Amino acid sequence: MSLEPHPARPSVLISAAMSVDGHIDDAAPERLLLSSPEDFDRVDALRAAYDAILVGAGTLRADDPRLEVRDEARRAARVARGLPEHPLKVALVGHGGLAADLRLWQSGGAKLVLAPDAAVAGLRAELGERAEVVGTGAGLDPARVLDALAARGVRRLMVEGGGAIQSLFLTAGLVDEIQLALAPFFVGDAAAPRFAPPVAGAVFPQDAAHRMTLLGAQSLGDLVVLRYAARRADASRVTTADVDRMRLAIELSRECPASETAYSVGAVIVAADGTEIACGFSREGGDDKVHAEESALGKIDLTDPRLRTATIYSTLEPCSVRASRPHPCAELIRAAGIGRVVLAWREPALFVADCQGVELLEQAGATVVEIPALAEEARAVNAHLVSRS
Ligand SMILES: Nc1nc(O)c(N)c(N[C@@H]2O[C@H](COP(=O)(O)O)[C@@H](O)[C@H]2O)n1
User: Fold this and answer.
1) 164 lies in a domain?
2) Contact (CB, 8 A) for 296 and 268
3) pLDDT band at residue 141, thresholds of 50, 70 and 90?
4) Best mutation site among 264, 291, 320 for ligand 1 pocket (most ligand atoms within 8 Å of CB)
5) Which of the pair, 141 or 269, is modelled with greater confidence?
6) 351, 352, 354, 370: which to mutate for ligand 1, most atoms within 8 A of CB?
7) Which pLDDT score, from 0 to 100, does residue 236 have?
8) Is residue 5 part of a domain?
9) Considering only CA atoms, which of 369, 379, 292 is closest in space to residue 332?
10) Atom of ligand 1 at shortest distance to CA of 318?
11) Which residue of 11, 42, 107, 316 is surrounded by the most CB atoms within 10 Å?
C-alpha cells in the first residue's frame, strides 16, 4: 500500500468559438465556420503551446478534425524544444463506431482514445494501430481522464469540444481557463448545438454568485476573444452539504457499541453527485476493532470510478497508526483513491500521543477540511473518554 501522491493533473483550457446567440455549430451536417482566418491562427498558436488536445466523439464525427498544429514554424519550434510536432490527440468516446476514414487517423502525431472500460476491447479491435485505447473506468469521469493524461506526462490540456465535453469538465470544476471567440452572427436554430449545455443533476461552479475573472478581451477583425479564469470547484471550502453529511456521520457515531478503550466514530463516503456510497461506525457488525472509516471502506467496490472525486466524512481525524490492524485509516482512504476528507474533531492525545492522520493525508495529496463548528458534537459522543484526557 502506498501513500505516494498522484501525479499532478494537467491544467485545462477550454477553447471554443460561438455565435452571439450561444451556438458552437448549426444543425446542418457541414461544419459551420465561426472563426475568421486570424482567429484560426490564434487557435493554432494555442495548440502549439499545449501537450494534448481533446475532443469528444460528437466533434470527431461532425467536424472530422485533424487536431494538428498547421503552421510549419510552430511545429519546428516544438521539435526544437524536444516536443513532438503535434500535441497528443485525444478523443473521449462512449463507445465504438468511429469511422476508419476519419482525418484524425490519417493525420500525424500520437492519438489516444479514452473510453469506458466496457468499450475498450471493441475499440482496440476496431482501431488497431490507429490509436492507443485506454479505459476510464465504468464511465467517462473527467477526473480519471485527467489522471490518465497526467500519467502520460500531459501537463497542459486544451479541450476543443463539443458542448457536452465542455459541460463535463466545467461542472466537475476541472477547468482553469476558457478562451471564447464570439462570432458576429446569429445561428437562430434551437436544434443547433450550444456552448456548455446544461447537464441534468450537475451544477456549474461558475454561477452568478461565483463569477469568473476576466483575463482579457482581444479584438480580432470582427470577432472578440474573451479569456476567463474559470472557477475550479474549491475543495477546501466547507459547504452546507458538508455540514449535513457530517451531522449524519455524528448520528452514526451514536450507534457504536460502548467502549472504554476506543472512540465512537461515524463515517460516510459520498460521491461528487451527492450519492451516498457507503457508511460505517466504530465496532460495527460485532468487530470490536473495526474503525468507522475502515468499516465504510470495507463495503465499497475499490474499482468504483466515483471514488476519485468522492469525499469521506469522519467525525474523528482518521488514525495514522494502529496496533490492531496493519493499515491505519489515513492509508486506507488514500489507497481507495478518495481525495477529499472532511472531519469534525482532531484526535486528542489519549490513546496515541500525536495522531498524524491529517498530515499523512495531506502529504499523500488529499484535501483535508475541518468543520470546527461540529467538533463539540462529535466529541460529546465520546464524553466518557475525553474527560480522562
Ligand atoms: N478514526 C478512528 N476511528 C475509530 O473508530 C477509532 N477507534 C479510532 N481510534 C484511534 O485509532 C488508533 C489506534 O487504533 P487501534 O486501536 O490500534 O486499532 C489510535 O489513534 C486511536 O485513538 N480512530
Assistant:
1) yes
2) yes
3) confident
4) 291
5) 269
6) 351
7) 77
8) no
9) 292
10) 1
11) 316
The 10s digit of each residue's pLDDT in 83-125 is 999 999 999 999 999 999 999 999 999 999 999 999 999 999 9
Q: Name the pairing type of β-strands 266-270 and 223-229.
A: unpaired
- For residues 389 and 208, the model is more confident at 208
Q: Please tell me the total count of domains within the chain.
A: 2
pLDDT value at residue 16: 97
For atom 23 of ligand 1, the residue with the nearest CA is 319
For residues 69 and 234, which has the higher predicted lDDT (pLDDT)?
69
Q: Compute the distance between CA of residue 341 and CA of residue 237 in angstroms, rounded to an integer.
A: 12
- Cα of 308 vs centre of ligand 1, distance in Å, is 25
Contact predicate 87/158, CB 8 Å? yes
What would the mean pLDDT of 331-336 be, rounded to a whole number? 96
Beta-bridge mates of residue 66: none
Q: Using the mean position of ligand 1's atoms as its centre, give its distance from the Cα of residue 302 in Å.
A: 22
Choose the residue to mutate in 253, 263, 343, 346 for probing ligand 1, maximizing ligand atoms within 8 Å of C-beta: 263
- List all residues whose CB is within 6 A of at least one atom of ligand 1: 262-263, 265, 282, 289, 291-293, 316, 318-319, 322-325, 329, 347, 351-352, 355
Q: Are residues 62 and 154 in the same domain?
A: yes
Look up the domain containing 251 and give its range.
Answer: 240-386
Look at residues 163, 162, 92 and name the one whose alpha carbon lies nearest to residue 123. Answer: 92
User: For residue 250, what is the domain's CATH number?
Assistant: 3.40.140.10
Specify whether the CB–CB gap between 366 and 236 falls below 8 A.
no
The answer, yes or no, to whether residue 138 has pLDDT greater than 90, is no
Ligand 1 atom closest to residue 256's alpha carbon, by position in its atom list: 5
pLDDT tens digit string along 276-333? 999 999 999 999 999 999 999 999 999 998 898 899 999 999 999 999 999 999 999 9
Closest residue (by CA) to atom 8 of ligand 1?
A: 263
217 with 224: CB under 8 angstroms?
yes
Ligand 1 centroid vs 356 CA: distance in angstroms? 12
ipTM score of complex: 0.84
- Ligand 1 midpoint to CA 333 (Å): 14
- 275 Cα–ligand 1 center, Å: 27
Residue 54 to residue 136: CA distance in whole angstroms:
14
Instruction: Kindly report, residue by residue over 277-287, the tens digit of the pLDDT.
Output: 999 999 999 99
For residue 221, the 8-state DSSP code is T
* Within-domain flag for 87: yes
